[in-house]
Design goal:
The protein is about 30% helix and about 20% strand. By secondary structure, it is α/β, with parallel strands linked by helices. The strands form three sheets. Strands 10, 11, 12, 13, 14, 15, 16, 17, 18, 19 and 20 form an eleven-stranded mixed sheet that branches. β7, α11 and β8 form a beta-alpha-beta unit. The protein is globular and about 80 Å long. Alpha-D-galactopyranose binds next to loops.
């Protein structure tokens, strides 16, 4: 009884507070379904006679959107200046006949042979000076002015032609930005970028501390263009330059498309989760929405890790996003391309929606007749008939159609945030010191218990306003500036609960060491500091407020300098240096707390640390007491509250609801109309529920 009433109160409170955090849907087309299922379709690979049967099968699977064109440059412009869009007009019109709308890709990830042959400077040069060849893709130089001119031209011609086409809902620029160029144009632009940033070479020498190893430069042209084995200041600036160059690469095409495109057509690009080749927040500053390609990151689907990447992508624009590609059971690029288990493709689609996706598109619709990806998972084979996973996708499509109207206008909201900072991730990666210290794994070590216990996490940039969050965790904010430190202190003063992980606040914005020990400009505020850090290849015992356990990979010896800074965890006997020294310390300041975690803690300790932090901050789970392995996602907005429950376990699970909810996809055999008070979910089962007002 007590359980029921507490849950009901929490639930009602959360339901009511949604209006104060309304976050709009990323895309809204009155003439399109609110939740879209889609696939990547390559009409240029097939005779036109195949298009209609293909599209009819898509329609039967409830596919609402196709992405086309992103590798079709040689078909759109078979020779210089000869634009051929008639085939694409016909493909789009035929798709529309089947109630399928279109996202158009600009084809710049795959320049045609005539272009790179006539203008070899448009080909990318790798770090060792080798120029790419035609025959693969992504062979272009992102900085070459000639390439930019061609990219702009094709984008503009496409926009003039399709910018007012009512069946085109948006644009994808290029495809999975990844490889920078190290050729002449990139070198010259890097030097100009540095000159703009530092003004004089003397200033650069001072900020980079180039007296070290006689690195002092006489002029900007002497500075090498490298992404390894260089001064950490150079490496960090190179990554920032690469980020700015991808941003201007995007703007080059956006400024060609936007004047000719209806405002309702969004412009995005498809990103790759934790990929750190550039700063996603920089590039997203010029995009309308975020979109990503969800391929599971290990051999087997780990729903927490996958959910973290959805949350990361949602944080690029702080609003709902698109899954522009996902795997129809398997890919072709792992050492062994094991399939997702039966049921997991649907499970993943609903997880995406639970975390804020408005669209889930499979890569790809049909096996290509030839090419590098003949073994990749698809929905129909090269013969055009369905493969086994087609039925699971069709079921998902049916459910999207049923639940879409209720889900429209809703998005996830969270009281806790995890900070993803590219400068810090790069800085750690350049000098890991402990090979196992992978900054993404460390993020996930903090994310997992936060997600399980709070059931909603925002992954944000350090520049996102923090005031709406009760808890902000910074797993390794290695690089810090005084303005950022000031914002963090203000957050705590105003009642926020800040948790810093190991290696925090060690470097300044030039990737040099802070003049104070960690956490640098926060040390006085914390009332403690890091006396020394140690890389570990053994476990170190520790005990205290979170129980007993071990630290591995990294441990910092902390000290306390303020009478009100508490030691929460202490190391046991290990390497002598750490014996009996503080490992986790915390201080109440103003209305909030700052906690410094000096070690990579084992998962059990991370669980109890998280529990304590959430308790202190007053963060409650959305739905308490759900069985382990059942994921709870909530989307709210427009006075609606939708729960998506996914059973990632291999056996059935029973979930008691705080109050009856409408079963939107009929997962309990109710046909979507009646309210249910509890849910039985089979393995990989999904329930989509709407709170009753
Ligand atoms: C990437 C690309 C696609 C395709 C898939 C295969 O995400 O964007 O073109 O190659 O991988 O998994």
């Amino acid at each position: 009884m007590r359980f029921r009433s507490t849950v009901a109160t929490v639930f009602t409170a959360l339901f009511l507070c949604t209006a104060c955090h309304l976050r709009a849907q990323a895309t809204q087309y009155p003439d399109q379904p609110p939740l879209l299922l889609g696939a990547a379709w390559y009409p240029e690979q097939w005779p036109e006679s195949q298009w209609d049967p293909d599209l009819a099968r898509m329609e039967a699977a409830h596919i609402d959107v196709v992405r086309v064109g992103e590798f079709a440059w040689s078909t759109m412009e078979p020779s210089e200046g000869d634009y051929q869009f008639g085939w694409l007009d016909r493909a789009i019109a035929l798709a529309a006949k089947h109630h399928i709308c279109v996202v158009l890709g600009t084809p710049t990830a795959a320049p045609p042979a005539w272009l790179t042959t006539k203008y070899p400077e448009t080909l990318r040069v790798d770090e060792d000076g080798r120029r790419a060849e035609h025959g693969n893709r992504q062979q272009f130089s992102f900085s070459d002015p000639k390439y930019r001119q061609f990219a702009r031209e094709i984008a503009e011609q496409m926009a003039i032609h399709f910018g007012h086409n009512p069946d085109v809902v948006g644009w994808q620029l290029d495809n999975e930005y990844a490889e920078p160029d190290f050729g002449l144009s990139a070198q010259q632009q890097f030097h100009a970028w540095l000159q703009k940033k530092y003004g004089t070479i003397a200033n650069l020498n001072q900020k980079w501390a180039t007296a070290y190893w006689s690195q002092t430069y006489d002029n900007f042209e002497e500075i090498p263009v490298r992404q390894d084995h260089e001064n950490p200041a150079l490496l960090l600036d190179w990554k920032r330059f690469v980020s700015d160059t991808w941003k201007s690469y995007s703007s080059n095409q956006i400024s060609a498309i936007r004047p000719h495109a209806d405002p309702r057509q969004f412009i995005t690009t498809n990103t790759m989760g934790w990929f750190d080749g550039f700063d996603e927040y920089t590039v997203h500053s010029v995009l309308d929405i975020a979109a990503w390609d969800d391929y599971i990151s290990a051999d087997h689907y780990n729903y927490i890790d996958n959910g973290a990447r959805h949350d990361l992508t949602r944080g690029f624009k702080m609003k709902n996003f698109w899954v522009m590609e996902t795997e129809p059971a398997f890919v072709n690029w792992r050492p062994t391309n094991t399939p997702l288990l039966k049921g997991q493709v649907r499970d993943m689609a609903w997880q995406a929606v639970g975390h804020g996706a408005e669209t889930v598109e499979y890569w790809q619709w049909r096996s290509a007749p030839n090419g590098q990806e003949e073994y990749h998972g698809v929905l129909v084979g090269a013969d055009g008939t369905p493969v086994p996973v087609y039925d699971e996708v069709r079921q998902t499509g049916e459910e999207f159609a049923k639940a879409g109207p209720a889900i429209a206008g809703t998005s996830p909201h969270s009281e806790v945030a995890l900070v993803n900072d590219y400068d810090s991730r790069w800085a750690i990666d350049f000098q890991r010191h402990s090979a196992a210290f992978d900054p993404v794994l460390e993020m996930l070590a903090f994310y997992r218990p936060l997600r399980i216990q709070s059931q909603a996490v925002d992954v944000i940039s350090i520049h996102t306003p923090l005031d709406k969050y009760k808890v902000v965790e910074l797993p390794a904010l290695n690089v810090i500036s005084q303005p950022i430190a000031d914002r963090l202190m203000e957050y705590v003063h105003n009642g926020g609960h800040l948790v810093l992980g190991p290696r925090s606040a060690m470097k300044n914005e030039f990737n040099g060491l802070e003049p104070e020990r960690q956490p640098g400009p926060l040390a006085d505020f914390l009332g403690g500091r890091v006396d020394q850090f140690y890389a570990l290849d053994y476990d170190v015992p520790l005990s205290g407020d979170f129980g007993s356990g071990t630290a591995s990979i990294w441990a910092e010896q902390l000290s306390v300098h303020s009478p009100d800074t508490k030691v929460l965890m202490t190391y046991g006997k290990s390497n002598g240096w750490l014996d009996d020294q503080p490992a986790v310390i915390s201080r109440h300041v103003g209305k909030g707390t700052i906690t410094y975690v000096g070690a990579w803690l084992d998962p059990k300790l991370m669980d109890s640390l998280t529990k304590q932090v959430l308790q202190e901050a007053g963060v409650e789970p959305i739905l308490p007491s759900v069985p382990a392995g059942v994921e709870v996602c909530r989307r709210t907005g427009h006075d609606k509250s939708i729960l998506i429950l996914i059973n990632h376990n291999t056996d059935e699970q029973h979930i008691q609801l705080p109050s009856p909810m409408r079963d939107l996809i009929g997962s309990q055999g109710s046909g979507g109309s009646t309210a249910v008070g509890s849910i039985d979910l089979p393995a990989y089962g999904v329930a989509v529920l709407e709170a009753q007002p």
